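Table S2 (text version). Query chain:
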Amino acid sequence: MGWATHYEIILLISSVVMFVGFLLWERNYAAQPIMPLDIFKAPSFLMLLLVVLLNYMAVGTLIWYQVLWLQKVWHWSPLHFAVGWTPFVVCATGAACLAAWMIPRMAAQWILAIGTITILVSNALMATVPLHQTYWAQIFPSVVLFSFCPDFVYTAAQIIASNSVRRNQQGIAGSVIGTLNLYGNSLGLGFASTIEVEIARRSGSQIMGYRAALFFGVAISAVALILDVCFVRLVKDDREGWHEDDLAEDIELTDQAEATGVHLPNASASH
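Corresponding structure-token output:
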């Protein structure tokens, strides 16, 4: 398994070719693109996607290596782990409510920054956990802090994305933000596991491999925080109703749908 496996290289190359092909199709041939490429020209949107991706890469890294640490190093049973992660369930529920309360009171990029800081510190706590230590010293605060990241990042990113793009592209922007959750978790774990394997092989210590992977999570969280503070801004949205260009595109899409026999409930309202 790993990079020495032939089918891994083939799959990687194939995925890149297919992705490039998709972009070319969307730009040059699609009459109604699923992913209109001009969406990436919206203010802060492209940088926002990178920040969200890095955050979810750090999330995927923490989830996997926290489980490994507790079950492989500390020899926790699955039941013990479930009990130890109970604070995550409780605090994540509170984080969703807190994020909703903060949205009208704080600029979304700062809520995003707070979410980034929580996953950064959480990874750092896990990366420096001693082999023998009480759960309450570092694991507990790591679990609690981690529980705030997904809700803060997701909520803030959706608000920023929605304000940045055109009205008729808000659904697409929201879908992209949601998709990054899955892609980020897998991508982060792929990089982290590669680092883990290489460090463990060179040092002769599996523990050092785990720590290196978690420090990778710290590093990408730090990059996400810098990018967010420096480049991501909440665009003030004082639009009322639909812009003429957006409305024209909506009417065109409605006409095309009706021509193919598809009935849209709001078709009459659009006209």
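Notes on Table S2: DSSP finds ten helices and no strands in the chain. The longest helix spans residues 170-203.
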